[in-house]
Amino acid sequence: MARQERAIRTRNRILDAMASLFNEVGYDAATIAALVERTGLTRGALYFHFASKEDIARAVLEEAVTRRGLRPQPFKVQEWVDLGLLLACRVPREPVLRAAIRLSVDPKARRLFGTRWPDWVAVGQELLVEAKERGELLPHADPAAVSRAVVGSWTGVQLVTEALGDGLDLAGEISMLYQLVLPNIVTPAVLARIDSSAYRAERLLREETPEADDTR
Amino acid sequence: MARQERAIRTRNRILDAMASLFNEVGYDAATIAALVERTGLTRGALYFHFASKEDIARAVLEEAVTRRGLRPQPFKVQEWVDLGLLLACRVPREPVLRAAIRLSVDPKARRLFGTRWPDWVAVGQELLVEAKERGELLPHADPAAVSRAVVGSWTGVQLVTEALGDGLDLAGEISMLYQLVLPNIVTPAVLARIDSSAYRAERLLREETPEADDTR
């Protein structure tokens, strides 16, 4: 058990280090040599966990669609909002999640590995379809179109917030995004009971039990 | 005059070709050698117009903040919407505009040249401040925050729409984005008179006189 735990830790250390390289220099310029230097691990140890750089990139994208911190809520639309708030809270701290976005906007990496956006759109759409069946959404709100628009918007707000710097906080910017779109999607009675505040995700993650961790 | 016109044409041909290379292989992998091959021009001709690859990248970003097709409208908020609709119409056709986005999301290019997002945020904010002074916006709409959110959202919707493929049309997706946010920004009386349809930009560009072309 201790040995297995150590192996998982090493694997995560490799993933984090390579993800940071992807973020700093881009997919093409991130090399196994730089990874060896950064982690201090031997090539043997690296290749025990991953066959190649491509393999690490695939593992990074594998982790990108995560529901960590998400719990059942009285309103399905709250769960949909929580997904985006949780990610906004985690992305600035977790290089692997940032790298997944980076790889998705890199022409070469995108050609090799595709993106996880179709999966995110599907996850959001599913929650919004349920929300609509329960009468939480306004009649004209189209779950597929709304999910697509918000996956796109979320991604762009992350990229632009990161580039603007300027002391901007992603959780705050994403909270603003939901406050801008929610009144056009959700019925007023439900809207009044939805929490889209910037500090909500922090609380959800704190309350999470270690066993509920579905990803790392 | 004819000679000057030919020079402008050659310059634009180089810009378009290098922009396409940036889009296809990314900033790092796009080389002057590939540009020579693609344009059929001599290195001498290239270096007459641009000193280096960096110089071409700067010229690409130079063209990114464009008001082509924009004309005074009865409502300032219509001009703000028009900016985004016009760009959505032009980006799929103009490699230089697409390359400006590509360079902005590339870690190396961003470090070298920055992005034009702060300029876009400023342009949008200025229009929204005027709109607010004229009473077109709802009291709680904050021009700076709204402009930032929509520059981010616009960018992400472009990136995700391009990646999803699937017959999605950027003009339609961006029109949807405005329809999602406008009711929370604009007063109802003004909202009823704002055109955010997907085909509006096409018409604005068609009506434009060649003299009004402020960019190319």
Automatic annotation (TrEMBL), chains A, B:
Keywords: DNA-binding, Transcription, Transcription regulation. GO terms for molecular function: DNA binding. Pfam families: TetR_N (PF00440). InterPro entries: ArpA-like, DNA-bd_HTH_TetR-type_CS, Homeodomain-like_sf, HTH_TetR, Tet_transcr_reg_TetR-rel_C_sf. It comes from Streptomyces pini. The keyword Metal-binding does not apply. This is Transcriptional regulator, TetR family. Residues 31-50 bind DNA. Residues 8-68 form the HTH tetR-type domain.
